[in-house]
């Protein structure tokens, strides 16, 4: 056995469970110092092989959640193998004639059995998903996992042989967590015959696709990330060796991570872009990523609505806007300004968070009688050098800054950021480990909105400011075309495609002058600007 490198202890471990991952990665703990540890209970029937010891723990040596997850999954799989070897050794030493006879009469390939079981579980999960009962499926699967483990711990007591129970355990673990799903994709029951010809690594196909298709930089970045996520699940494969089962294993892993059917129905076809290119270039005969879409349950996200007046009052009467509180998670002045900017522009969270000081400037235009006027605007545009991105080409635009925001001192905030040569106006926003700029701030805002301000309707989120701008713009008769241009909303109307950064400024200024939220009272400006 390879347990010599593991620290085995009795009793309780002084650690904090990573509750966000506990349902997926049982046994992954985070110590008070921030580093992760794997803790696994030794099955009762195997403890004699471990000198009576009860628990295995191993420090993973990292505080990074993604790295900890990778190391934990690998260690857990190694312990699975170790336990299986120990159990087999003990069983060989004390095996009953009846069990011996059954095993001899019915030899079982555990991997093949598990692969077949996984196919059945996927079909069952799809049925539950279509009925909106995914949580019920997960609960039943977890209960099944406990049952199979009990069979393994207690022997052939309820009709399943040990190999059958192990196969069901492996398949159930794969459907719940994605762990081992890629390995099952290569099991004899589902492994296809490899095609001939030179093997081309998937990464090389990506390079060829980039060179030939010359896609937008953000598309290259996003597809590169998707390929890396795929390879993290199935390993680095030649494109000829990728099968439909590998893609299904990737889908399982995404579900296990908590990705929604809507997310997965975008990610898998996006990955398929690369396989379509491989088909077009005669590298493979068919696209293995052509999967049936997952049924999309109508969720609260699809029913998002605007902030009503009571909810706006609750938010802007909170400690950030009334008492000058600046929680660490709120990233300094971003906590105060981002909700206000969103309410007065309808801009997306990332668009606001990545604003550069130069994106706030004064622009001239002609008013009535060709009189020359000017207005302060903020610009939302793609800038690869600065790492700025927008949702699509129609999202590039500039938006007049509302008089209320100017009265609160936003121009002073932008000027101070420019004087300090900051890369972003809201420079205290810290991206996630995966590089998502607004990931951490978004989580803070959700907690603040729900727990501190008491806005509990799941349909009301930061994106609701976008709905709010459109709603209140209609209420005060801002022209629809102007409202769409301010928010960067594509309508599909050919006439409305001629906008963006070149759209005439005057109608935008006049539309913004009309905009207000009836019954809304501005919070006081930040203490530093009074």
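^ Assign residues to that structure.
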């Amino acid at each position: 056995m390879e347990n010599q490198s593991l620290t085995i202890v009795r009793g309780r471990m002084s650690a904090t469970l990573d509750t966000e991952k506990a349902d997926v990665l049982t046994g992954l703990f985070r110590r008070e110092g921030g580093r992760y540890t794997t803790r696994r209970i030794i099955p009762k029937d195997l403890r004699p092989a471990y000198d009576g010891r009860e628990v295995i723990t191993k420090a993973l040596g990292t505080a990074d959640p993604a790295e900890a997850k990778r190391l934990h999954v690998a260690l857990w799989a190694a312990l699975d193998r170790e336990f299986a070897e120990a159990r087999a050794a003990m069983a060989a030493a004390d095996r009953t004639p009846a069990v011996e006879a059954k095993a001899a009469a019915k030899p079982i390939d555990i991997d093949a059995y598990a692969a077949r079981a996984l196919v059945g579980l996927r079909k069952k999960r799809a049925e539950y998903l279509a009925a909106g009962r995914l949580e019920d499926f997960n609960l039943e699967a977890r209960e099944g996992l406990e049952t199979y483990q009990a069979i393994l711990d207690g022997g052939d007591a309820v009709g399943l042989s040990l190999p059958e129970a192990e196969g069901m355990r492996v398949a159930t673990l794969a459907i719940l967590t994605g762990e081992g799903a890629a390995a099952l994709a290569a099991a004899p029951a589902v492994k296809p015959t490899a095609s001939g010809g030179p093997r081309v690594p998937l990464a090389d196909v990506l390079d060829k696709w980039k060179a030939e298709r010359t896609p937008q930089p953000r598309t290259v970045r996003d597809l590169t990330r998707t390929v890396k996520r795929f390879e993290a699940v199935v390993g680095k494969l030649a494109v000829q060796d990728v099968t439909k089962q590998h893609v299904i294993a990737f889908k399982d892993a995404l579900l296990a991570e908590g990705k929604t059917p809507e997310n997965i129905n975008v990610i898998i076809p996006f990955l398929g872009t690369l396989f379509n290119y491989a088909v077009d270039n005669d590298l493979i005969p068919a696209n293995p990523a052509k999967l049936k879409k997952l049924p999309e349950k109508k969720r609260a996200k699809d029913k998002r609505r605007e902030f009503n007046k009571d909810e706006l009052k609750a938010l802007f009467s909170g400690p950030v806007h009334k008492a000058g509180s600046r929680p660490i998670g709120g990233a300094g002045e971003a906590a105060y300004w981002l909700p206000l900017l969103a309410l007065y522009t309808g801009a997306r969270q990332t668009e606001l968070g990545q604003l550069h000081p130069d994106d706030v400037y004064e622009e001239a235009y002609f008013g009535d009688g060709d009189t020359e006027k000017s207005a302060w605007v903020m610009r939302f545009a793609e800038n690869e050098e600065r790492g700025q991105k927008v949702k699509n080409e129609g999202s590039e635009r500039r938006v007049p800054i509302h008089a209320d925001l100017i009265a609160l001192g936003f121009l002073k905030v932008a000027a101070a950021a420019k004087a300090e040569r900051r890369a972003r106006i809201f420079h205290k926003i810290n991206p996630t480990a995966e590089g998502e700029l607004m990931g951490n701030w978004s989580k803070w805002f959700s907690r603040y909105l729900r727990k501190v301000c008491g806005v509990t309707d799941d349909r009301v989120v930061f994106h609701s400011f976008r709905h709010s701008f459109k709603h209140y713009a209609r209420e005060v008769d801002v022209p629809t075309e102007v409202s769409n241009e301010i928010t960067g909303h594509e309508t599909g109307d050919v006439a409305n495609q001629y906008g963006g950064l070149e759209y005439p400024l005057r109608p935008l200024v006049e539309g913004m002058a009309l905009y207000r939220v009836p019954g809304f009272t501005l919070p006081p400006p930040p203490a530093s600007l009074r």
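The chain is about 50% helix and 5% strand.
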